[in-house]
Amino acid sequence: MTSDTNYVGALGDCWPVQEISRTAVAPLERLKILLQVQNPHAIKYNGTIQGLKYIYRTEGFRGLFKGNGTNCARIVPNSAVKFFSYEEASKGILWLYRQQPGNEDAELTPLLRLGAGACAGIIAMSATYPMDLVRGRLTVQTDKSPSQYRGIAHALRTVLREEGPRALYKGWLPSVIGVVPYVGLNFAVYESLKDWLVKSRPFGLVEDTELSVTTKLACGAAAGTVGQTVAYPLDVIRRRMQMVGWKDAASVVTADGKSSLEYTGMVDAFRKTVRHEGFGALYKGLVPNSVKVVPSIAIAFVSYEVVKDLLGVEMRISD
Q1: CATH class of 4-311
Q2: Which of 119, 126, 220, 287 could anchor a disulfide with 301, C-beta 3.0 to 4.6 Å?
Q3: Mean pLDDT, residues 110-120
């Protein structure tokens, strides 16, 4: 085992792979957010292909990658905190579970992994949430926005000055709630699929206790698909709450300057979204998100496993 410091630092070394994967799908990520928050009375983006064409036509090639710099900047601290927290939470939860009579030799179950993944996701998300809010706003603003955030630092200063410190955590509650199905299911499905493949060896896929990169990729893709689908409505509400009080995004206001994104809280956001736009509005942007999230999460998990192999860290927490 490596020390905690080296372990966190090593996980951060995955950032080149993650930045490449996130940059590759950045246009889809920006379109997803634009679809999530656009004013229903001023529709500009009607689908994946049309939306990408519209962004390219109105903002050029660089417009497809707006907000990607902030997204990449979040990768190192978010990934390091998340995976380190997952390992530590798993050890702690398993230790507590084994203290109960009859569970001395127990292994991590999918439910325990869900709890560890949820803890890790909440810690990592909370630590980097202000950057996520800024990323959302940089992504949504267009060349026609009345005023412009000039970058990460300028956006943070502007939000603090004009809206106060609490504004940096707008949408935090649905994010926390969404962590349980999203990050929790990601880890639970991924680890459980790996264990099942190793122990049952279905269809001759596994010939020894080591899984190939391709198999891990498939497990990560399956985990990402399940997690993002279940938690997606909460992601839509989070993005909409992040835009509340911000009038300078051309994509969320009408020509007369009115915004449809005025909510007093998470429940109010859910209620107004469904009442005014229908239940389907909770899944706006799901198509481009589905296209981009599977390779992104799968590559992240493979990078995680490769680093653990290089460090000589245990392959599965259940061992």
Answers
A1: mainly alpha
A2: 220
A3: 80
